[in-house]
Amino acid sequence: MRSDTLYLRLPRPQVAFFRFLLEAREGLAMFTSLGADAKGREVLCLRFAPGAGAEVRRFLADVQPDCGTELLAG
User: Fold this and answer.
1) pTM
2) DSSP 5-69
3) How far apart are CA 5 and CA 30, in angstroms?
4) Domain map (residue ranges) of the chain
5) What is the dihedral of CA 62, 65, 67, 72, to 10 degrees?
6) d(CA 38, CA 62)
7) pLDDT of residue 2
8) Which burial class, exposed, middle or buried, applies to 74 when counting CB atoms under 10 A from its CB (0-12, 13-18, 19+)?
């Protein structure tokens, strides 16, 4: 099965809150932590179904003010 991927970074203390917000959007996406960068920010790999990219990006834009997410690549 194929999935699309985005990478993002956020402050480590915000990871649990980000997970809570993402889980509230049942089935939108799932993430894996890739560890911390040199500044201690968590790097996440976000995977989602093909065709859900616009909805995922809207979600990321919505939570950015509260979580401090930064889109890296995708």
Assistant:
1) 0.89
2) EEEEEEEGGGHHHHHHHHHTTTTS-EEEEEEE-TTSEEEEEEEE-TT-HHHHHHHHHHHHHHH--
3) 10
4) 4-73
5) 80
6) 26
7) 86
8) middle
What pLDDT does residue 74 have? 54
Least confident of 8-12, 43-47, 70-74: 70-74
Residue with tokens 């960068």: 37
Instruction: Indicate whether 1 pLDDT > 80.
Output: no
* Per CATH, domain 4-73 is 3.30.70.600: yes
Write out the DSSP string of 33-50.
Answer: EEEE-TTSEEEEEEEE-T
pLDDT (average), residues 35-60: 95
Which of 27, 23, 26, 7 has the alpha carbon at shortest distance from 72?
Answer: 7
